[in-house]
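HUMAN: Mind sharing a backbone?

ASSISTANT:
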Amino acid sequence: MSPHLEPARIASGLLEEWGLTPDGPPVVHEASVVQPVVADGQPAVLKVTEVHPETAHEALALQTWGGRGAVRLLRADPRRRALLLERLEPRDLLEVPVREACETVAGLYADLHVPAPPQLVTLPAYVARWVPGLAALPRDAPIPHRLVDQALGLARELDEEASTGRLLHVDLHYENVLAGGERAAWLAIDPQPLSGDPPYEPAPMLWNRWDELASEASTVRGAIRQRFHSLVDAALLDEERAVAWTVVRMVVNAFWSVEDAAREARPLGPEELEWVTRCVVIAKAVQA
């Protein structure tokens, strides 16, 4: 069965089971189906995702937040990865000036970084999955070996109790924040939750809206640093830990692309090379 057909099939069945009335065509994303509905006379959305470790505890995260800083969960069937959510406005942060968008996201961190439920994977355990492969990278890999060594060292240093305990969104960027209407100015959607360290969060705000960097500062490095410090300063994050986690996260992201190509015994494609370069640029830029 096609991976997209399974969420669509589940969503179709839940319309009747949950007494939902379709209110527009479904929106099919890469790994989910989102169906606008009316539930008990109120606009809502039914979201069904494919089975994937990153979305396994989405309902738990939303339930923990209880609508504070994030979209409100109305009903869930975690086994079928089905969520009934309040319907937010379609506006996201893509059209908001970058610095304002960074400050908006930083303002959400305080609401989202509550004590994490014990069921969540911890951030150090999540990162540890990739450490052996990263350590085995050949020296001619397209990630500077010095940066790989640095990321490995930082990962070891960050493997501590302080790196767990807070509920992280993990994928909080411009398109994962929607206007909340009368209830709130902006609310987060689509978490990929971990139990971790809040300074891990800023990286997606650095690699998205990449084409706009040239207009934000005289250099790409300067623009990245402006975004980074807007997030860190507004959210009062520990800057040293934010730098360390960003380096680790970007090197691991680059490693995934290298690993995929090696597994398939092929060279990196142009888009993959661009992504690896982007990851390296960000990892270097956030360091003084």
Remarks:
- Strands lie at 21-22, 27-28, 32-39, 42-49, 73-77, 82-86, 166-168, 177-179, 186-188, 194-196.
- The radius of gyration is 20 Å.
- Residues 93-285 form a domain with the Aminoglycoside 3'-phosphotransferase; Chain: A, domain 2 fold (CATH 3.90.1200.10).
